[in-house]
Each structure stands twice: as structure tokens, then as C-alpha cells.
User: Fold this.
Amino acid sequence: MQPTSHNFPENARGGLADPVLQTALGMARTGFPYRRQQAVARLPEFEALRDQAKDIKNHTLAHLDYYLELYERNVIAAGGQVHWAQTAEDARRAILNICRSVGAKVVTKGKSMVAEEIALNDYLENNGITPVETDLGEYIIQLRHEPPSHIIAPAIHLMKEQVAETFRGAHGHLDPARPLDEAQALCEEARTILRPHFLAADVGITGGNFLVAETGSSIIVTNEGNGDLTQTLPRVHIVISSIEKVVPTLEDTATLLRLLARSATGQEFSSYTTISTGPRRPGDHDGPEQYHVVLLDNGRSELLGGEFQDMLRCLRCSACLNHCPVYAAVGGHAYGWVYPGPMGAVLTPALVGLHEAGHLPNASTFCGRCESVCPVKIPLPKMMRHWREREFASKLSPKTYRSGLGAWAWVAARPGLYHTLAEIGGRMLGWAGKSRGRFRSLPLAAGWTGVRDMPAPQGRSFHSLWAEQQKRRGAA
Amino acid sequence: MSARDAILRNVRRSLGRGAVPVETAAALSERVATHRRNLIPARAASLPRAARVDLFIKMAEEVQTSVTRVACDADIPAEVARYLAAENLPAELAVAPDASLADVPWGDRPLLQIRRGKAEPGDAVSLTPCLAAVAETGTLMLVSGSGTPTTLNFLPDTQIVVVRAGQIVAGYEDGWDLIRERAANSGEGWPRTVNLITGPSRTGDIEQRIQLGAHGPRRLHIVVVGDVDGNSADGAPSDA
Amino acid sequence: MAEPARVALFVTCLVDLFRPTVGFAAVELLQRAGCAVEVPRAQTCCGQPAYNSGDRADAKVIARQVIEAFAEFDYVVAPSGSCAGMIKVHYPELFADEPEMLAQVEDLSARTHELISFLVDVRGMAAVSANFEHSVTYHDSCSSLRELGVREQPRQLLQSVTGLALRELPRAEVCCGFGGTFCVKYPEISDKMVGDKAAEIAATGADAILAGDMGCLLNIAGKLSRIGARTEARHVAEVLAGMASDVPAIGKARV
Assistant:
């Protein structure tokens, strides 16, 4: 999808003004943290596992070339094929070629953020192939022609009334009088509608939460079962994933899996965690005849060895989104591309450029809640700060802002001058605000006083009062 | 230059080195071959085997799985008949054609219609064995193979899984070792699919309220067969 | 009580400019904890605005000033988690590319503390002798909570204030939306965050909201005032030092 991250302030205003979105976000911002906290409380080793997970990921990244080659050897040994893709376009073409090679008309899809990143659906459609999203949330937004607003719950911005409206519009052959007031009815309908697509699909495309080098396996972590139907029923299974998803061994994967569902939804484990290795075996009754892995780089190799390397540890669990007060205020669409919230604020500029996505790492108070819940301890605020440093160095931030901060820093480096100005300013504002104790409006401070009062200063600076007090005591 | 070469070259350049040195490659190879376990939570690992069975059942029930215990294979048909009647389900099963279920006397319940093989659209109920059952989170581990079609785990509305008490292990790592052992000894190699199943299918995609039966089975029933010795030689915790 | 210590007060620019009472309350508490308190004049700002805006060069200039001004003291104490966190946690990162500075920076970092955690954890203060006959709720500022681990200490001391009834604030650990320049760069988002915070505070029915950071307090007080809530905002040091009756709450006039 074309990014609109450059329009973040406008997008954010839209999100803040949307009452349905605000209701949906209100539920998410209490529900997710509560459930995660319950899960963490039940597992005494959780903190120790975070440290181990971080180490596993760091080790893998330091030897990523080795593990990628080992992974590839084992995929091939199991009868699968690996397609390396430097760019989104490379990945799209590789997938299209595989689909064409089997004359595919209909493709079912399990949820994949990398597939969103490469804008796969539009590309397939433009090339005469129909992609059918099967994850319930993805199916809903596909019908609505919307992008996902969350990396694990794509339709979290919607209330059930909107889903019902969408289903009535899209499933015109069903009885218009049927009740769709309850979530249960909506789920049933999606299940019924999508089942024939699963059975008819020529190709099934899934993501890959993990790629296990030891065995050449891909892993999907889901709850619905759609990913499993997608990858088991058709003749061809394509995995679209990215290079940093590689994990050395199944034991390493178990450590990461212990953190993933707990961090994401507060579940002990997802309903379906599936390890796939190659196509069906000679004695198997079902399963795909072909197994392909499309391995995407798309800028990740550039992040290795630099100040953003830690971002490659990301498990895409969404804990950072779920605990972020900015995400909770504006919703995922405001971020303007595939990856919202804190992880999106760090990753998006890396993938689409700082010119496009500069607002995202700026729209943060650095409260640090994201980092505190990240299962692999990614220092998200630190990396957002690094983006701000790059912006500052290339003068991308607004001039008024930079000159204001520059003036402050200039004065702050001169204590004598600073103390004089502080005393003068304090006296003036203190005097002006004395009768009420606060200002309803202040010139040059409309950003503040537009929505809140400005408390008046007490009228003297601490340093001047302290100096007077010391003098009195000295003289006494 | 191929995309593969370009990507690997970029990775090495970013890491500030050429290819992995020989000694390092040997160490990495050793690390993979040894596949040492990382920290294992004490929750299941610290329990003796009998208590592990209880934990497995408790964790499975927490995720809306129903569990019944029977003494031996001979009791399975009666339990299945009871369950289907209780859930108002038709007395028809698609059963995994696996050797581990060969001794189940389905003939004792002639009204149960059994079909062995993979699942077909429209199948209401399947019955499968498993490779292992993980007590830590009430998770079943099933592998695909000549006797265990994967579609039995996903197409039908209801899945019944037979778990022998001795198959209940502490953690996922114990399961990996069983897959490795099977790959080495069964003649079937490494399975195309390993399904870790924890409860029936579900979604929270609509207003974050959990609904069961999104696309996979809406009901998961486990029949635990037999028991384990609490104090037997392998009654000790599986891992320190 | 621990042995006498030479403490330098890091005033912070917001205390200096807006609310000197907080500085005097900090001095009072430190003195009661057996510290000899000095206030180096050559201090202005901790450098966080420059640092968080990506201007490492200016941040370093200011930081060097701080390092020099505070070199001689046993401890450096700030009535602010944000400024203490900047010095303690971020100065080492700021100078990570200057190994020759690291020794001094880490030395300063080790000696720097947020006020309340210093009193409790370093000076062993278990209670205060102050009176505040009001119901109170407490907001954890993000730096204090997540950078410095300050959570139990202010609550412990507040429990010892006679007449004070402490009510836990739901979602006390959620950011108030100040974030330094964030509140003016993204004012609508900041407003949403502070609006939610103010509503949650008002809903506790507490007479007063306390916190350990003036940035949060100015933000929260300003919003409470704008929505017409009756809850008064003060810095926790004022209440602990028994000085709350000396001055109006933040944003209130002397009656």
C-alpha cells in the first residue's frame, strides 16, 4: 500500500475524532495489558526467558548468513524450494511465477504482515489471480478495502455493527433478514462463506512467524485454523517471510514461543502452532505437493551492524502497540502503513524512508512502556531517538522547532544569563498570572493553552530565592 | 549476482566481515547439532509424572477442551459414543488409520460409523492419536504421517484426540525429542506437519470477544487412556 | 540514620521557573535526612530537551556543564525522575562515543538520584513527620517508574503522613501526555492522553493529585483546571515536607 505516514498529524486527528474507533480502542487499551499481565504473573520464569530470547535473537543476527544458508539447505533437503527476494517486487514476482506455474486462479491466504508489506493482494489481482483472505479480521478488512490497523488483530478498529454491515453488503446471496447482531453469528457466517474457498484454492500462502534453521521448517502461530487449512488443502504452499525470522533450533524456538502468545494476547499458547517442513511425504494422505519459501530482505540486511539492529529481534507480538498510549489514542491507521505503534515507528522509516515516515518516531513521549513489555527487550524509545538524531542532522525537522530548541540550549549553556532571564521571566509571568494562578491563553503557547490552562509561575526563580536566603543566613 | 548472493553479501558487509570463519562455523554447527535446551519453566518439569497428567488435564480444560479419562483402549468406543450423544452429534467418525489405534474395539459399538482416512468436507467428527501431550500448557502435539492425515485436525467440526497417559510430557522440548526419535526410527522421516494444538479454534477479531470455531474445530475432546506410576523409575521430573 | 552526606540539589528548570517551593521542600527533606545541601549556581538544564530532539551536540555541551558543576559532591539529587533519569541513565549513552569521558560520566551517574528514592533507599527514611488531612492519589511519572524503579518509595512515605488517605489511581502507570516537546508537537494526541488522565484522577474523588515531576504536574494541573475539576495538584515533596499549607496548589491563586 502507498504510505500516508507523512500525513500522520492529519490521520491522527481523524482517528481522535472517530467515535467508533475510540470505543474500540478503549476496549483494547485495558483488555490487552490486563490479559498479558495475568499470563506473566503465572509464569515465574518470564523475565529470565526474556533475557534468553534476546540472547538467542542477538546470536542469530550476528551469524545470520550462516543460519540462512543452513535453513535453505534443510528446506531443500526436505523437498522444498527457497526463493530469495531482495525487494518487494522480487518477492511479488516470485510468488506470481509459482502461481502461474500451476495455473492458479484462486489463492487462499493466512495472515501475513510481510505480504502486506509487499502489497501482494493488489498485485495478484492485477495479474488475474484472486486472493482470498481467510483470517477473520483480514477477511473483514479485505471486504472493506481497508488496511489492517494492528499487527495481530487487523480489524480491531471496528465494532460488530460495522462488520455486520460489511457482511450484508458482501454476502448478498444470503437472507437479508438474518440476524447478525451477535459476534457469534458473524463468525459462523465467515466460517460458512470461507470453507468452499479453502477447498477450491489452488495455492495457499501463509506467513512465517519463525523459520527454523535446524530442520528447514516454517512456523505459523494462529488461533483460527485458517492458516492450517490454507497450507494443507491446496496443491501448493507458499511461505512469504523475511530473513530475520530465522531461529537456530527447535529448542530456541520453544523459548520464543513461551513468550509470544503471552505477550500478544495473554494466552498460555496459541490454539494452533504449526511447524511445516517441505511438501507432503510419499505416505501422506493430504498436504501440498509443492512447498516454497520466499525469503524477503527489503532493507533488513541494511539494519544489521548499525544502530537499528535491535529492531530485527522483533517477534511481531504487538505488545508494544497494546501498551502504547499514542496508539491507544489514534489507532493503527494513523501511522499510514503496514506497521503501527512503537515497532512501526522504528521500522517504517527504515523500510519506506525518513522523509515519508519522520512523524512516527517523533509522535512519542518516550514513556518507555513499550520497551518494558517487549519480550525481546528492544530499546524502542532509544531507536526512535536515533531517528530524531538523523532528522536533526539532515535538518528534516521544522525550522521553528529547531531554532527554538537551539535558543534554549544556547541560553542553558550560559548559567549567568539563564538565571537572569529566568528571574525576569518568572517575575513577569508570575505577576501576570497572580490573581488567577493560571493562564487560560498565552501568546506563542497556543499548542498548550488551546486545550489546558498554564499554571502561573510562583514569581521568583528558585536560584534567586536561594541566593537571598543564603545571603541572609550568611549575614546572620 | 543472484538475489541470494546479494542478500548474503549485504548481511556480511553489514556485520563487518566476510564469510563465517571455519572455527565459528564448526561451533555453530555443533550448537545446532546439540540443540541444547534453554531455560525450562518449573511448572511442569518439576512435577512427578502422575501430577503432570493432572496438570495437562487442568491446562487443557482451561482452554475449553473437554477431557475424560478411561482405563484402556477397550473403553474408548463407549466413551466416544457417550460423548457424541451428549453433544448431540451424529454417530459418525473419520478416524486416523494409525497403527496406534489398531486395538480400539470399534466393533463393541456397532452403531458408530467409522471411516478411516483423511477428512472429507462435511465430516462432523474426527478421531486421532497424538505423538505427545505437553502438560505445561495443555498442548497436544500431532504429526502428519501415513497413519495421521493433517486434515483430520482441521476440517471436521469436532476433533477427539486419544492421549495415552504415558504420552504426557512436561514441555515442548520433550516433544521435539520424540519427533526426532520418530524421524530416526519410524521410516517416515521428519513429518510434513507438526500441529501443536491448544484448545479448539477461536478468534477475538470481533470486539476482542473470544468466539470458538472460527475455521478449525469448534470442539476439542481429549480421551486420556490409562495412568502412569507416580513413583516409577521414570517418575522423576523430566529435566532438572 | 546514615552518616552525614554532602548533597548537591539539581533544581531542574521547571522547579526553578515555575515552583521554587518544590526546591525548598526538597532541601528540607534532605536536611531532615541528615544531608548538608548545596545548590551549585552553574546549573540550568539537564539537556534532555536537546537530547530527545536528536541534538546530541547541544545535549553534550549542557551535560559537560552539569558534570563539572556537580563533580565534588557525594550525591546529586533532583526532585524529578525525568532529570535524574537523564543524568543517571542517559548521560552514559550520550557519551558512549567518548571513552575518555566515561569514567566521569559513570561516576556522576552512580551518585545521581531522584529525590524520594534517595530519601528511602539511600538515606533509609521510613516515615516523615508531616500532616495533610486530605485524600490523595498518585501519578507515577514514566521516567521515575520505568527508568529509575521509583514506585513504592513515595507511597511508603505518603502512608506516614498523618491525616492523609491514599487512593490508588487506576492506570497510574500510563503516561500523562506531557513528553516534553511532544505536547506542543502533537497537541491533540497529548490532549487526549492528559484528558483521560485528568478524568481518571477526578473519578477517584481525591482532594489532591501528587507526582514527582513538574512536567507531568503542570500538564495535569492545567487540564484539571480547564475541565473545572476540583482536584488540586502538588509535588509530592511539598506534602512530605509539610509545606503544602504554605503555598497554593499548582495553577491556583492565593485565596
